[in-house]
Structures are given as C-alpha cells and as structure tokens.
Write a structure and sequence with these properties.
By secondary structure, this protein is an alpha+beta fold. Helices cover about 45% and strands about 15% of the residues. The strands form 2 sheets. The protein has a two-stranded antiparallel ribbon. It is elongated.
C-alpha cells in the first residue's frame, strides 16, 4: 500500500500494480512527489517558496523586495521580468535577481571575474567598429584580430 493512503484511495489515484498486489517504484515515486508538493504547499505556500527558503534562505517576500530595489529588471541586462535568484557559489550569499540568459552566462563563466574580463577583451578585439572619418562618413575599422565580415552575412 502507498504510505498515507488507504488501499481504496491508492487504487483510485494509482490504479496500476503488479500481479502480486505490490506497487511499482514508478507509482510509489508519483505518490511521493504528490505528497511532497502537498507538504510544500501546506508549510510554505508553494514549491517556489519552499525552494527559495531551502536553497537561499529567502522567501518570496524578500525576492520581491530585491527585485523592487533593482527596479523590477535583470541586474545585468536590464531585461524585464527576471526570475532567477543569483548567489555566490562559494559563500552562498544572494547577489541579485537575473534573467535566464544572464544567470546562465555567469554559470558558463563559473562566476569568475577573470574569465569575464578575458571575454570582454576578446569581444572588443574582434568586433568591427565604425570610425567617423568625415561628418556623415564612417569607415569600418579592422580589429586587431579576426576576419572581415563575410559578404554573404
């Protein structure tokens, strides 16, 4: 029998079992997941609140306060509706709220300021830039490295 449910309740919610009357691991997992969601809802008001409290020590209220301090936008790109709480992986301290792309970008650079600085240097050195050579006349300046833009692009 599934823990916490009478046999008739379990049969209605999870009608499949093997010939010996035993529940499969898949069905037990489904019951476990359902009970976990019910507990998170009852104790924390939802799974998001539970996740924020458990992982970062802040609740939805604190999340909204941080977001308001940032003007309701991503702390890096200023994009609307950021939903990811950023934290320092070494200390666990919350740094701000980011959009999906900025949060993932920091993760890809492993939160390393040195790696980010190298990436900025790389971009600046390989990006073609317009230089004003006469009022209204621009010339594309060749970067220190890289190839000229393709005629097809």
């Amino acid at each position: 029998m599934v823990s916490g449910l009478r046999a008739d309740q379990a049969a209605r919610r999870f009608p499949h079992h093997n010939d010996q009357g035993q529940w499969s691991a898949q069905l037990l997992q489904a019951c476990h997941n359902a009970r976990g969601k019910e507990t998170a809802q009852r104790l924390y008001g939802g799974t998001r609140e539970y996740h924020l409290q458990r992982r970062y020590g802040v609740g939805e209220k604190e999340f909204q306060e941080i977001l308001a301090e940032q003007g309701g936008v991503c702390a890096i790109c200023r994009g609307a509706d950021p939903q990811h709480l950023d934290h320092d992986h070494r200390t666990g301290w919350v740094r701000g709220i980011l959009c999906f792309n900025c949060n993932g970008g920091l993760g890809q650079f492993r939160d390393s300021p040195m790696r980010l600085a190298r990436a900025i240097t790389y971009l600046r050195g390989t990006t073609w830039q317009r230089a004003l050579i006469h009022p209204g006349v621009y010339q594309m300046c060749s970067p220190t490295r890289g190839r000229p833009p393709s005629r097809r692009s």
